[in-house]
Structures are given as structure tokens and as C-alpha cells.
Amino acid sequence: MKKSDLAALLLLGALWGASFLFMRMGAAQFGSMALAGMRASGAAICSIPLLLSRERLAELRANWRSIALIGLSNSALPFVLFSYAAQSLPAGLSAIFDAIAPLLVALSGWLWLGERLNATQASGLLIGMTGVVWLIGGSMGFGHGGAAVGWAMAACVGANICYTFGAHYSHRRVQSVSPLTIAIGSQVAAAVMLLPFTVWLWPAKSPTLQAWVAMFGLAAACTSLAYVLFYRLLARIGSTRSMAVLYLIPVFGVVWGAMFLHESITLAMVGGSVVILLGVALTTGMLKLRPVAPAPLDAVEKA
């Protein structure tokens, strides 16, 4: 992986990690549907000027059905599901669940699409998931929410299933389309899909200034900018390596939650984050396992 791709991967992890902070800050005020709709609408408004060229508009017209499906699976549905989860789960714990997606992408690619994983990549995925389990174990003491917490965790898993489908579909169906066209077009599609529900379920009480600031940060930085970075990575390094960014999200999500919402960080969380980073390094090829060379025959005989 090139240094520029690695830098984009780290920046994307930081931005998407911050999205859980902003959702936690705004979900209670806006509600899950309104926050998701405003996020998609704000991202579309920020990004549309980049779409206004003949080439991009032509791409959009030729591939609008595929781009709309990507908007549903990679934006509209996950935005709603994670916003729902943010009303019950701490930002750090919600972010932890994002690390499930790389394993789902790799396993589904292997089982159904014939994609192969070498031993290093497979080891990285397993190590990364071990770190996720470690982080979850260190995060379960945030409180007892009963059924609401269980449904929130289920929503996080559902969002990751949507991401898995979107990653494979994008890589196989729209590889010839500019990543920028996909990123912007999918946000516009998500905004259109969510607009009626946003209006219908708009909160009766006006959200606070802090909630509005969180929503704007969520739309402009964590969505508009982040999705452009993501689709460029997807085109350059493929779906399995791109989804490895989701191993970084728990690390940043836990850090941002601790810094700005005073969520606790345990030793288990720190250890889990280190293990996750090791998994990312192996999965993306940043770190390669060297096979152990067999000892020379004469050395064995001497021994």
C-alpha cells in the first residue's frame, strides 16, 4: 500500500470514528430518522458543486440505478441504524461494532464470490476480530439498558451487513465509474430517499445548538469528505483492504468519546485497540509475516 493510501486510511478512520461522537451528541435531540436525513442532505449539499461537470453528470445518468442502490446500502440504511443505536450506546461502543464489517466482507467474498485470502490476510482478520472482542469486553460496563441496548447492538450489526453488500456491489458493478461520482451521487440518492421520513418525523422540540453543530460536523466532515476518501480507496486498493479502515474506527471512536463525552477507557480497551491495529497492518499488507526458513541439512546433522 502506498503512503498516500495509508494516510487516507488513517484520516478516514478518524473521521468515521468522530461520526459516532456526533451521532451520540445529536441523536437524542433529532431522533434517528431526522438525524440520518439531515446528515445525508447536508452531505449532498456540500458535495453537489463537485458533481457539476459534463463528465460526472453523464456518469450519473448512465449509472443512476447502481448509484442509488449504493446510496441505500452504504448511506441511507446505515445512517438510520447507527443513529438509532446512538440513543442507547456510548459513542465508543457503537464505533466498536464497525470493525465487524471487514470480516463480513472477507468471509462473504470467500464463500460466495470466489475471492481468495492469503494466510497473512486471514491472520490479520482473525487478530483484528480478537481485538474487537477484547474491546467489547472492556466496554460492557457502561450501564444496563435492557432490551433497548440489545436492539441498538442489533442495529449496529445490521448497518455492517449493509456496508458489506455495498462494498462488494461497488467493487464489482461500478469500477469504471469515477469514485467521486459514486460518493456524491450516493449521498444525493440517500438524501432523496430519507427526505420524506425526515419531514414526517421531525422533532416537535427544536434541537439545541450543540445538536445542530454535531449534525453539521457529521454531514460535512464525517460524510461528505469521508465518503469521497472511501470510494477513492475502494477503487485503488479493493474492497477487502478498504474495509480494513473499519478496524481503525473503534480506536478513534473510543478516543473521541473519552475526550469529549468523558466515556471511560479501560486497560482492556487500550489492549484491544493495539490488537486491532495489528490486525489492520496484516490485512492491508503493511506488515507481512515472513515464513521461517528451514534449517540447513548439514546443521541438522551436526546437531
Automatic annotation (TrEMBL):
Residues 8-135, 151-284 form the EamA domain. It is found in: Membrane. InterPro entries: AA-Vitamin_Transporters, EamA_dom, EmrE-like. Gene3D superfamilies: 1.10.3730.20. The chain crosses the membrane at residues 30-52, 64-85, 91-113, 125-142, 148-168, 180-203, 209-231, 243-261, 267-287. Pfam families: EamA. It comes from the Bacteria. Keywords: Membrane, Transmembrane, Transmembrane helix. It is a multi-pass membrane protein. The keyword Protein transport does not apply. The keyword Membrane applies. PANTHER family: AMINO-ACID METABOLITE EFFLUX PUMP-RELATED (PTHR32322:SF9), INNER MEMBRANE TRANSPORTER (PTHR32322). This is Membrane protein. It comes from Dyella acidisoli.
